[in-house]
Amino acid sequence: MPDKPWYRAPSSTEDDLNLCSICREIHFEWLLHHDLDREHWDRHVSGVLEDDQPHHVKLYWQGQWTDYAIPEMPAVPLGLLSDIFSKSNTCKFCHLVISAVAAKYETIPNLLQSINIDACPFPLVFCSLGTSRNTRAEEEVYDLVISLRIIPQSFHVFDHIFIHRLREDRTPYEGARVHEQINFENAREWVTQFTPTLSDPGTSGNTPDGFRLIDVRDQCIVLIEGSQSCRYLALSYVWGGPQHFQNTKANDSRLRCPGSLASTDAEIPLTIADAMLFVSRIGERYLWVDSLCIVQDDDFMKLVQINAMDQIYTSAMVTIVAMYGSSCHAGLPGVRLTSGRWKQHVVNVHGVTLANRQIILPNSGPKDWPTRGWTYQEHALSRRLIFFARDGIQYESEDGVTTEDIHQPFHHAVDDGLPDGRGFPTGGSLVRASGGISLLMHFALAVHLYSGKTLTYQTDTLRAFEGVLNVMRADFCRDFLYGMPSSELDVALPWRPIQHLERRLDDATGDELFPSWSWAGWRGPIVMPVFESTHFSRIAFVDAEDETEFTTSEWRGTERGLETSDGVAWQRKPLDIDAPPGYFRPGKPNILFTHPVSKPVPAAMQHRRSLKENSPILTFKAYTARISTEPGQGVLLIRKTETDRVPDPSVSSRTLFDRYGRFCGTAYFHGDGSSDVEPRCIEFAAISRTAYGVNNEAWEDPPEDDADVLGLREGYAEREKLRKINDERGAASYFNDYSFELKWQAYDVLALEWRDGVAYRVGVGFCLIEAFWDAEPVRKRVPMA
Q: In whole angstroms, what is the distance from residue 772 CA to residue 774 CA?
């Protein structure tokens, strides 16, 4: 096919004799340097005629033979996967395709015919070959892409498998050989490229009290005291139940004796032992592991170490992540020759060495690590990481994310802690304000990712998140209340469930551990609506000691305009319909805040307390109203589009109705208590004013006292025609289609349930501001636990 450059003329060479009739005509060298999609398009627009008839394939399925016409596609048709399988013993490239497919679906080639491929029966799978640009390589090179297609569904592509070229000259970001045991020399070079920079927290030598490390050379625990500093790696792994070999008061002195960890009675879990071996083989000396470097029965020092997790993981030169396995006994695949792991399949075709790409992370073997609460902050705080999974090793650093079957780039150290053009945020920058989103958005994202994790002990909920809070505390300039930022408490209060939530209870006593108003008080994933329109506070907090009212604006120290009490004249990014505004200190436009905040607490606020010591009761003044509700399926929009994430059906939804029986809002309830199907009135507290729908925000801020609402109250009853909604229309279409008299037309509301004079949060939602005022709200004191 001379007019198609991705084909070549076959020959009688030995190389061609080891290929099938289809593969020997493929010009692999050309494909590795050209965009096949673009080539097909250029031929299409230039009017080049094809010199062959449409391809057909006959398929015997469900008792009959059916002829299918292969549609024109920007790819090289390889044929049925079953035919490729039958040729894999005689064709080198067919063998590579079958090996790569088997590796992707975690089986061996001989068993491939007996399984469904992504729920598709094996005989119905058709394969084609395309190209994909290697965007990180310095030259214009391409990987090969095997596309798996379902024949009866018009050859719809349901999966891709990548094959790349191996290079022996170590060209950055191009293919590298992988063996049964990892290449320690390559790992050593990768780790040691990351020399300490001025921005590395560990360079100061300030270590927490009682800081211990494992000395892999002397096989013992060492105590790092005072300003002593040293290079060390950290381990992030899953305990998977009690560890019998731990550091305790009884054995701490013995474990600090050289050779103690090499003795026959030292039953070190395999994951820790493999981590020690890895550190030793790459030429490093020290390793931090929680079970051995924290004295587990010393409650005081244990708390000191837990509170210093941000310092420990951020200061580590690299964190080793045991991604594979569900316990500390799973080991690190590839550290020892005896550990089975992913296989690289290599063939040489027409002088080109090809291999299947590693498929790192989402689907290989039992992996509890991504689901665990403690490991979230270990990942978020680490500057650089090496992930050990059964399907290979992955590196994560300032240079980006790459795998061991790709030649690692040379690391260029940066001094500002920020990534370069193709880099990756590390060392706490995953949870620190930088770039285009505000600090509160970083916090909201961190809470969202963490809230869905699992913990063995529910009492660890805030302890396992303390490192993240430590990183953010300095930027927020205020403390946290049960995991909620006190400087943005009114904005954070309307957090939302996205799955069914349950109260977080003490495993031993069954008591509620944290207040209902905090996300920490509930088990299950949540989101904070801080990526939407601005939320303007409508509550005043009450001092826990003397009942004085104060606002978060006063607590932040905001005075005249954008000036704070410490004399800083903040600047504001323009209010945008698609995102809330951001504020920044002069000269620091990349660090955005939701509101200006003074670094010191204002003098007038220094004695204000939102909570009494050891009390979860948060008291505020707010307008509350009783509003009729019925079971419903309304949608609280995230970022104002219907395609964004909304709660799943496990979350109880109720629709709010005004006194004329018209739709006026939606609320989600956390537990089972509000899943009844009967209509009932519920008390709602208005927390903040905001906007919903794509056309209803204003460019200007709303009035501070809601005076614009009061002028419309008398005409509310007469506007029935405008407010009426069909049963088929949901909240999303209602807010997107309706033209409101008011901008910023809704309140964020909390659903309250009272017990013995104390309110508990049971749900969250929004209510049309006019309907809320028509319900004759009253301003009242709300003590919430």
A: 5
Contact between 555 and 606 (Cβ < 8 Å): no
Report pLDDT digits (tens) over 170-211: 888 899 999 889 999 989 988 887 765 444 444 445 678 889
Q: Are 519 and 483 in contact (CB under 8 A)?
A: yes
Question: The tokens 């002088």 sit on which residue?
Answer: 351
C-alpha distances out from residue 41 to 35, 45, 48, 738, Å: 10, 6, 10, 44
Q: Using CA atoms, how far apart are residues 354 and 97, in angstroms rounded to an integer?
A: 11
What separation in angstroms does the CA of 683 have from each of 14, 509, 519, 614?
A: 82, 30, 20, 28
Predicted confidence (pLDDT) per residue in 480-536, tens digit: 999 999 999 999 999 999 889 999 999 899 999 999 999 999 999 999 888 767 788
What pTM value is reported for the model?
0.85
Two tokens, residue 241: 């139940």
Statement: residue 437 has pLDDT above 80: no
Task: Count CB atoms within 10 A of the CB of residue 435.
Answer: 13
d(CA 752, CA 716): 26
The type of residue at 431 is V
656: left (phi over 0), alpha (psi -120 to 50) or beta: beta
CB atoms within 10 A of CB 70: 16
The rounded distance, in Å, linking the Cα atoms of 211 and 785 is 37
Q: Averaging pLDDT over each range in 43-52, 649-658, 710-719, which range is the top one?
A: 649-658
Q: Which residues contact 692 (CB under 8 A, 6 or more apart)?
A: 533, 636, 637, 640, 731, 735, 745, 746, 766
CA angle, 652 as apex, 651 and 654 as ends, to 5°? 135
**Res. 72 pLDDT band, cuts 50 70 90:** confident
- Please tell me the distance from the alpha carbon of residue 518 to that of residue 393, in angstroms, as a whole number: 38
Could you count the other beta carbons within 10 Å of the beta carbon of residue 578? 11
* Bridge partner list, 541: 550, 620
- Identify whether the C-beta of residue 690 lies closer than 8 Å to the C-beta of residue 764: no
- Specify the pLDDT at position 431: 63
Cβ atoms of 126 and 155 within 8 Å: the answer is yes
Q: Give the C-alpha separation, 359 to 164, whole Å.
A: 12
- Token pair recorded at residue 134: 């290697």
List beta partners, residue 159.
148
Amino acid identity for residue 511 in this structure = D
What is the SS3 assignment for 708? helix
Helix (H) or strand (E) holding 158: strand 156-165
CA atoms within 13 A on the CB side of 170: 6
Residue 418 has pLDDT above 50, yes or no: no
Give the position of tokens 């589009």.
641
Rounded to a whole number, what is the distance in angstroms from the first to the last CA of the chain?
Answer: 76
Pairing of strands 56-61, 64-69: antiparallel
Separation between Cα atoms, residue 22 and residue 15, nearest integer Å: 14
**CA atoms within 13 A of residue 300's CA, in its CB half-sphere:** 3
- Can you tell me the distance from the alpha carbon of 719 to that of 696, in angstroms, rounded to the nearest whole number? 18
354 backbone φψ class: left, alpha, beta (φ>0; ψ -120 to 50): beta
CA-nearest of 651, 477, 653 to 564 is 477
Q: What is the pLDDT of residue 150?
A: 92
- Three-state SS at 747: strand
Q: Give the bridge partners for 680, in sequence order.
A: 629
The C-alpha atoms of residue 587 and residue 477 are separated, in whole angstroms, by: 18
The pLDDT, as a whole number, for residue 244 is: 84
Instruction: State the helix-helix crossing angle for 373-381 and 439-451, rounded to 10 degrees.
Output: 140
Instruction: Please determine, for residue 166, whether its predicted confidence score (pLDDT) is greater than 90.
Output: yes
